[in-house]
Amino acid sequence: ETGVTQSPTHLIKTRGQQVTLRCSSQSGHNTVSWYQQALGQGPQFIFQYYREEENGRGNFPPRFSGLQFPNYSSELNVNALELDDSALYLCASSAVPGQGKGGDTQYFGPGTRLTVL
Amino acid sequence: KQEVTQIPAALSVPEGENLVLNCSFTDSAIYNLQWFRQDPGKGLTSLLLIQSSQREQTSGRLNASLDKSSGRSTLYIAASQPGDSATYLCARGGAAGNKLTFGGGTRVLVKP
Description:
The structure holds two protein chains of two kinds. By secondary structure, chain A is an all-beta fold. Chain A contains no helices and eleven strands. Chain A has strands at 5-7, 10-13, 19-24, 31-37, 44-50, 53-57, 64-68, 74-78, 87-94, 107-108, 112-116. In chain A, strands 2, 4, 5, 6, 9, 10 and 11 form a seven-stranded mixed sheet that branches. A four-stranded antiparallel sheet of chain A has the order 1-3-8-7, with no helix packed on it. In chain A, strand 4 and strand 5 (44-50) form a beta hairpin. The mean pLDDT of chain A is 90. By secondary structure, chain B is mainly beta. Chain B has strands at 4-5, 10-14, 19-25, 32-38, 44-51, 56-59, 62-67, 72-77, 86-93, 100-102, 106-111. In chain B, the strands form two sheets. In chain B, strands 2, 4, 5, 9, 10 and 11 form a six-stranded mixed sheet that branches. Chain B has a five-stranded antiparallel sheet with strand order 1-3-8-7-6, with no helix packed on it. In chain B, a hairpin with a 6-residue loop joins strand 9 and strand 10 (100-102). Chain A binds chain B through residues 4, 6, 31, 33, 35, 40-45, 48, 50, 55-56, 58, 88, 90, 92, 94, 96-111, 113, and chain B through 4, 31-32, 34, 36, 41-46, 49, 51, 89, 91, 93, 95-105.
């Protein structure tokens, strides 16, 4: 059973550019959530995808968008990058929401460190 | 507004001492409470998940309790080891399987 993987590991962009981050969910999981973690803070929920549809969104502007593919992998796209977008971006996968008995446990990938200059 | 707070922000203990980490949340309509460990610059490792119907969960040296009425969860780590040094985060699960709301974390240093 493979865990959650993310690519790339590190990324440096300049203000105004666009970036795409990728995530492969853990085997058997069809739900993917994205979080942004600024240095020294807890992660903040960006959005969640379940069966290729957005299933909840946090307080992030529309320039943060996402996709989920039929194999349940996912992309996070950020347009018009700002300096404050510099953070660790975490992807988490889980089984069907609401299954209980551990089905809600979210398993996190290693993250992508984005630096915006 | 749903908020999750972890106090203290940092903690230093000698090896062998028991660790007690606190987490408080403002909304008692909690779905579940999850504890994570994060090593510097790394992702999150799930430690324990407590469903709203449960009072505690145990795994090895770790025990987590949940008191919805007081809005608190506590993570106990028995007989701490230097390898337990990390940041510990708690997260409140809202609607079924939906977003996690995280606390700011407690950074733990276990001194040999």
